[in-house]
Description:
Elements: E1 2-13, E2 16-27, E3 31-35, H1 42-50, E4 57-62, E5 65-66, H2 72-75, E6 78-81, H3 93-103, H4 108-121, H5 137-149, E7 155-159, H6 167-182, E8 186-191, E9 200-205, E10 208-214, H7 218-222, H8 225-237
Parallel strand pairs: 3-8, 3-9, 6-7, 7-8
Antiparallel strand pairs: 1-2, 1-4, 4-5, 9-10
Amino acid sequence: xxxxxxxxxxxxxxxxxxxxxxxxxxxxxxxxxxxxxxxxxxxxxxxxxxxxxxxxxxxxxxxxxxxxxxxxxxxxxxxxxxxxxxxxxxxxxxxxxxxxxxxxxxxxxxxxxxxxxxxxxxxxxxxxxxxxxxxxxxxxxxxxxxxxxxxxxxxxxxxxxxxxxxxxxxxxxxxxxxxxxxxxxxxxxxxxxxxxxxxxxxxxxxxxxxxxxxxxxxxxxxxxxxxxxxxxxxxxxxxxx
Length: 241
């Protein structure tokens, strides 16, 4: 099943092409890591995929429909973490995640349970009752990751997430994503250094695909029993849309 389809997509800013005649197909069960230097156009590409930007030329389809920021049925199936988030919420981390879960139709009691579980697994127990705005950048990022997954989306897009995480959190999240693509989820990440664990590695520069390689799931097979157990706990609490 094709999750994301781009055909001859061009996007310009002040007549300068940021994305140049790009065609790309991403299927259910793919984890595509788009790697390239800062300014290569990776963030712009993600914004085009989710409908935050519209191309000047070409077409973009997400789950078989043209992308638009005003399609709730499509947005419900996306889990997105931006490269930069300006979080000024006065809600605590626990309250915020419970509200996000409720927005996706998860009932109050399981929503709170899921929020608590995510924050515990992210090692945020000591700050979960603090306002989000008081958390440091890494702590806020972990909350955003949990918010992107709490509703069990079909398409997951994370912008330069792993470069901002500690190694232990990165390890188990890689295995979690590998388990999710086995459930026919679609994962797109961006990075400045290639990620180990994805199934497709796309080198992206100047708004164009320079190279594409396929990888195996070596990391999931080499992960520790503790990581596999942690991942299994998170898989079990994730609710269907």
